[in-house]
Every structure is written in C-alpha cells, then in structure tokens.
Amino acid sequence: MPAGAGLCALARTGPLLLHSFTGVASNMSTQNEEKLKAAHRALEFVKPGMVVGLGSGSTAHMWIQLLGEQVRDHGLEIRAISSSIDSENFARGYGVPFLTFDECPVLDVAIDGADEIAPGLALIKGGGGNLLREKIVAGAARKFVIIADESKIVDTLGRFPLPVEVIPMAAPLVSRKLRELGFQPAIRRAKDGSQFVTDEGNLILDCSGRMLDDPASIAATLDSTVGVVEHGLFLGMASLALIASASGVLERTS
Fold first, then answer.
1. 43: phi > 0 → left, psi -120 to 50 → alpha, else beta; which?
2. For a designed S-S bond to 38, which of 52, 182, 214, 242 qualifies (C-beta 3.0 to 4.6 A apart)?
3. In angstroms, how far apart are the furthest CA atoms of the chain?
4. Angle at which helices 58-74 and 30-42 pack, to 10 degrees?
5. Count of other CB atoms within 10 angstroms of residue 145
6. Are 68 and 96 contacting, i.e. CB atoms less than 8 angstroms apart?
7. Spatial distance between the Cα atoms of 173 and 132, rounded to a whole number of angstroms
8. Do residues 125 and 112 touch, judged by C-beta distance below 8 A?
C-alpha cells in the first residue's frame, strides 16, 4: 500500500487543498482565532484515502468544519469514525462518510482538542462529556493529534475538574472513593438543570479540589474502581500537540 494511504484504503484523489477558513464565523475572539490556526494546521495530517478519527467539543468542531469543506468542495476522499453523535451528525452534513470499528479497527489519525495539556502530553479531556468515546477513538489511532490554544498549557493537571464517567447506580459509591482521594466530586448538570447523561447513558462526576501531581497513580486508582466507566486522564496517548498562539502554531511532542 502506498505511504499515506488509509489502512482500510480508498482510491487516492488529488492533493489535499489547504485554503482559507471558509464558512467559519468572523469577528471571533483571539482564543478562537488561535484554535482555528491549530485546526487548520491539523489538516496537513490528513491524506486522501485515510480513515480519520473525529474528536468532540468546540475546537474539534472547527477542525471538522474545515475537513468537511475539503470533502464537500474539493473531493477529498476519506472515511471517519466519530467520538460523539453530535460530531458525526455535523460531519455528515458535509458528506463525510462513516465506518464502524467492525469495518476498520485501526485509524490512520485521530484529531481532537483537550481541556488541559501538561508536560509529557498528559491530558485532561472530557469537558464536553464525550470522554469515553474520545478515548476509544484515540486508542485506535496510529497517530493522535491534539489541537489547542496556549491557554490549555499547564505545568500540572488539575485546575480543570477531572471528569469521571460512572454507572448511575454507582455514583454515590464512586463519589465517596473520590472524596477519599481528596477530590470534591459533583454530578454534572445539563443546561436545564437535570443530570447530564452521556451518549452511553452514564453520569459524569466533575472532580475538583486537588492538583494531580501524580496523574498516573490517580488513573490507576480510577481504573480499578468499581463503577467507573472511564476517566478524563489521557496519558501516553497523544503523539503530537499543535499549540496555537498569536505568534503561530507550535508542534509539541512532550
């Protein structure tokens, strides 16, 4: 198979066209402008014939729009697997075709945002509520690329509350365990005040109150806690982070 072709390959088409930020709202904030720079740079990691993992959240939404324009307007042939129902529906609006992991168990690249990025590309993700599917997609990718603005860079994880997805029945038990670990867990609420429910029907506990000086230890404890479905610590998963600032986009590998 030629270099750059998808693992579940399509026929190649012409070169990927990197063009202006068509269709993205003008008069955006500086932070959104920086996110858009990173999203645009991420297009360089997508080649015709690839199977691409789509992230979730506001930054990923920008990236999906740019990618979708390449599919709709310039004939880019890719296929995708999404980390959320919302992202899939949005991409389908541009004509992006989708696969399942039954059809293609390995992705060429997955691209997503992050809530915090610490040294070693340790991440907190899940602010949008899709951490389980995001981790599944990231784990299936040969290359996992993060796009973010410089406000997401931290020395130590933990200023952003750590999302922990739990089986509803187990929420009181997991909350007690989290308090023993020094967290202050709170059940995430939807805009209408009801409990936020994930695409898989679970609840999310947002855990504040402590910094994560040893995220690997916290991750291991959560992984072994009965009732925890998944958590928002993405450790040793990202290949590269594209960090945008006023001066440009920095490629960070550690």
1. alpha
2. 242
3. 56
4. 50
5. 25
6. yes
7. 20
8. yes
Best CA proximity match to 38, nearest among 153, 123, 143, 148: 148
Q: What is the pTM of this model?
A: 0.88
Determine the Cα–Cα distance for residues 242 and 79; give it in Å rounded to an integer: 23
Give the pLDDT means over successive 10-residue stretches in the chain (254 positions): 46 38 49 87 96 95 96 97 96 98 98 97 97 98 96 97 98 98 98 96 98 98 98 98 93 93
Contact 84, 135 (CB under 8 A): no
β-partners of residue 148 are 243
The second-level CATH assignment, the architecture, of 30-154+235-246 is 3-Layer(aba) Sandwich (3.40)
Active site residues: 134
Q: Name the architecture of domain 162-230.
A: 2-Layer Sandwich (3.30)
Residue boundaries of the structural domains of the chain: 30-154+235-246, 162-230
